[in-house]
Amino acid sequence: MPRSARPRSKAPDSLPKAKTGIAGLDEITYGGLPRGRTTLVAGGPGCGKTLLGAEFLVRGALEFGEPGAFVAFEETPEELTQNVSSLGYRLDSLVAAKKLHIDYVRVERSEIEETGDYDLEGLFVRLAHAIDSIGAKRLVLDTLEVLFAGLTDHALLRAELRRLFHWLKERGITAIVTAESGQHGELSRHGIEEYVSDCVISLDHRVSQQLSTRRLRVVKYRGSQHGANEYPFLIDDGGLVVFPITSMGLDYGAPTGHVPTGVEGLDAALDGRGFLRGSSVLVTGTAGTGKTSLAAGFVNAACARGERCLYFSMEESPDQIVRNMRSIGLNLERWRKRGLLRVQSARPTLYGLENHLAAVYRATTEFAPHAVVMDPLTGLGAIGSDREVTAVITRLLDFLKSKQITSLFTTLASVQADPEHSDVGVSSWMDAWLLMRTLESAGVRRRALYVIKARGMRHSDSIHELHFTTRGLRIEPAAVVPT
Fold first, then answer.
1. How confident is the model over 114-134, as a mean pLDDT?
2. 3-242 and 258-477: same fold?
3. CATH topology of domain 258-477
4. Range with the lowest mean pLDDT among 136-145, 180-189, 391-400?
5. Rounded CA gap, 276 and 131, in Å?
6. Sign of CA dihedral 41, 46, 47, 49
7. Residues whose CB falls within 8 Å of the CB of residue 57, separated by 6 or more in sequence, listed in order
8. How many other C-beta atoms are found inside a 10 Å radius of the C-beta of residue 291?
9. Could you count the other beta carbons within 10 Å of the beta carbon of residue 439?
10. pTM
11. How many other C-beta atoms are found inside a 10 Å radius of the C-beta of residue 246?
12. Candidates 3.20.20.450, 3.20.20.80, 3.55.40.20, 3.40.50.300; correct CATH number of 3-242?
């Protein structure tokens, strides 16, 4: 595995770093952006360049005691303040507290073309005032295209860029400069900015099969190692979050404790103790075999022990799950009210595979659950190829294992398919696998449960009959093997 695929939490080099505070970005840059140097953030429209720069300043002011200045060439302070409020940030309050300075610089291309002259001295005066007025340590220039719109001489452009970046470096300012993507493969419009910048970050907003995904890549980072893969990221009301895991190593711990399954009789079939804590469990079966009910029983038992559970549903709303589980005596609403259970529902087609992965990452990081349920995984097949779905689920498993979170996944099996076959193709990576079926015997349909595998423990190889009761599910050895 390439070293770039396994970001470490601490930078192995001595280059001073300025933490961004953006979830995931500090990890893949091994500690943040180069302190006292300039970082170029390039990308097309709508990919999040301005918001990344704004969050860099806001978090610097609020979390690291570093005031910042935002110099805009396209948006007025009022427009910027309104737009960034979507992330939950109040720029006006930071300005009032002298932690942030916002300046709008109007640049008219026609005026430059008419005079035939170009001089950055006026900009340096504005920048110096913005920096000195609050003692800024961070700066964002948004965007370069407007600043150099009337300049066609590339030699002069490169010289002026170097002059600008050198001016910032002399003052020890950690700067982000945004730029639009080029048209012929260049990262930036002029194809020069990336060469004179110390760090270059590329943002991309792509659409595949009518689903959009934002991705981030650190193209270069002088003097520092960095993750060089593409990383999905989200923009929501909490800001940006970059999901830094594309392929994790198999170096996570292996807890030896057990957790009850929440299904009467099932613990006895699993060495008398239930699932291994921190393990991954796959539950497969055709429609109506009780997969969701088994998952709900597992969640109910965990919450009853005072453990937090995160339930991702791709077919039913939270209220629908709560209502349906009352029919088998499970009151999940009480755990929601106590803050022990969080149910998040979203159709698989709401967004792309990578964004599903990033959404799970963010929710898990915020809620810090002891157990996670995903019901069912099968829907992901509608938004990606078998290979893509398998890769995403594998990365999800590794992420949850690294957090030592016990996870349970359900999948819908086809009636025509081999029952001991997982449609999502990840059964080999699961620690335990339960198969649920409906079988007929003497004109009666019965539900059966098999323990296909359970790594690290003895487990029953018998066929168990599954019963729905007023207190949840119950299994017992089948008196007569259904045929």
1. 77
2. yes
3. Rossmann fold (3.40.50)
4. 180-189
5. 56
6. positive
7. 68, 69, 70, 100, 138, 140
8. 23
9. 15
10. 0.72
11. 21
12. 3.40.50.300
